[in-house]
Amino acid sequence: MDKLVIEGGMPLEGEVRISGAKNATLPLMASTLLAAGTHVIENAPRLRDIRTMRNLLGHMGASCEHNDVLVIDTSDIHTLEAPYDLVKTMRASVLVLGPMVARYRRARVSLPGGCAIGARPINLHLKGLEQMGVDIDLEHGYVIARAGRLKGACISFDLVTVTGTENLMMAATLAEGITVLKNAAREPEVVALAEYLCSMGARIEGAGTSEITIEGVKDLSPGRVSVIPDRIEAGTYLVAAGITGGHLKLTSCRPDHLEAVINKLHMAGLPIEAGEGTLEVQRTDRIRSVNVKTWPFPAFPTDMQAQFMALMALSDGVSLITEQIFENRFMHVLELKRLGADIELEGRSAVVRGVRKLSGAPVMATDLRASASLVLGGLAAHGITEISRIYHLDRGYEAMEKKLSAVGARIWREGNGA
Ligand code: EPU
Q: For position 418, what pLDDT does the model report?
């Protein structure tokens, strides 16, 4: 199995191009099920999760080709099923449920199992679909959904859910009448999906606010879309510059999607300059300790919590990092401690006491963002860090070791390509 080897201590210098966002591409791919024909998705990142979604759509009968652009032809969908093998490797597979049941009026989707960062149930997706007239049964580990034409409904989410909002918004585009989603997620990925759906003929208002109104239409037609930049990848590279005492310019990014992260990094002593599609960061002083609480957009994202913790491990004081979205997203703590970090867990918070230096060690990746925090720790640590189980990293960071090497990191992959 592949591992990443990092010889830490090199300040990063140069330019990094930010890729298209994984979490925007996955719902766009699922939305292709709403309209038969050829959809073209530009700027889709080359990632394991994108391949998994291609395999899933392929299993259903779509043809997917990813060369310069990602082309998905949904003219011949014949299998209305998301099997366990695919759902268990990627929970976002559940995004096909809404489009399938809206267009084909039935679906069989494996229930996702447990996950390294929390229980992550899909009860709110199912409850919303039931309100739209879908009959839901759970059999043999599968959600069996059957419906006539879906009916518009007023759906109020108990919790803000990103893929829940996306699933129901997609389903509602083909429903009869008006659907209102209250307490909807406001993430940029939701807005990007709404924009593509509208370009396909959907009628959606309010995406980006907590109330989205969708007026159902009879059918949609395929189109062309360009994926928004990955705000979490950008945030991760900002931390990489900060943690190594370097100077990076990020291109092809959206500073307006990163305000909460930029604000916290600024408080931590990293001045960041935002330009037209660019972000530039340079560290001159020691990192200052800052408290952080995760919350849905526009607040500080849970997907940046682990990376920020790696930065705080080298700060000049004590910081309190509170995870409010997922109950178990602290798997990186024990691994960061192996690099010499001083972190104590107290319920949903981590108390991080900054140390002067980290030292390289063998560590293990446990989930996507935890892996990124270990890469960051390794880049700053003295000596060699070896990160095993890096398939987690390949799910969500395009060519990470190549991008990092190009700006001066000593990082390489060892293994047999698995
Ligand atoms: N929740 C429920 N019931 C539901 C749905 C969610 O209780 O039916 C709970 C979850 O357990 C969690 C909270 O609501 O405690 C929020 O979860 P959400 O549904 O928003 O998460 P998600 O849609 O499954 C997406 C991203 C995650 C990101 C979260 C939060 C995609 C494909 N995934 O997941 O990304 O952490 O939103 O922002 O968009 C990642 O990229 O590393 C990643 C995990």
A: 58
